[in-house]
Amino acid sequence: MDRVNKALRRVPPWVVYLLGVVPFVTVVVPGLSAIDPVRSIEWGLGLWALRLILLSLTVTPLRWVGLNLLRFRRQIGLVAFAYVVLHFASWLSIDMGFRWGQIGADLVKRWYIVIGMGALLLLIPLAVTSNDASIRRLRATWNRLHRLAYPAAILAMIHASMVGKVWTLEILAYVAILSGLMAVRIWKNGVKRVVWA
Fold this sequence. Notes:
- The chain has one domain.
- Helix 2 runs antiparallel to helix 3.
- The two termini are about 30 Å apart.
- The protein is mostly helical.
- It is about 80% helix and about 0% strand.
- The chain is built from 11 helices and no strands.
C-alpha cells in the first residue's frame, strides 16, 4: 500500500477534474442517439452524481485501511457537485423545457423531485466552502458543516431509487455501499459524532 500511496502523491489533484469530463462524454454522446435521449442523459448524469458522492465518502474509510486519497477528496466532491448540477440542469432544460409553472408545481408535489432538490441544497454550502480560506475561517464549524454530505448522500440515494421505480441490482449495490459507509463511520466515531458533534 505504501508503494501505491507514494505513486498517488506524484499525481496532481487537478487530474481529477480532467477525469471528471470522461463520464460526461460517455453519458451525453451515446445519449444523443438513444431511443429516449432526454431520459438517457438525465438519468446518466444523475447516476454519475450518485457514484461520485459515494466515491467522495469512501476516501476516509480507505484511509483507515491504508489507502490515502485524502488529497483528492476536495476535487472528487466538487466533480460530484458538478454532476448534481448538470443532472438538475438537464431536468430544467431538456426535460421540462424551462416551463417554470410546471417546474414550480413539480417542486412541491412530486416527492422524488423534492427529495432530489433537498440533496442539491445540502450540497451547495459544501461546494461553496470547499476551499482553504473557508477551512481557515470556519475552523471546527467547517467539519460539522461538511457532515451534511451524509444526509445529502442518503437523500440522493432515495431520489435515485424513486426515479428508477425498479430496484435494480445497481441501485441495490449503491444502497449497500452507502449503508456500509455509514455503518463503518458510526462504528468508528459513534452516532453523535457522525451526525453532528
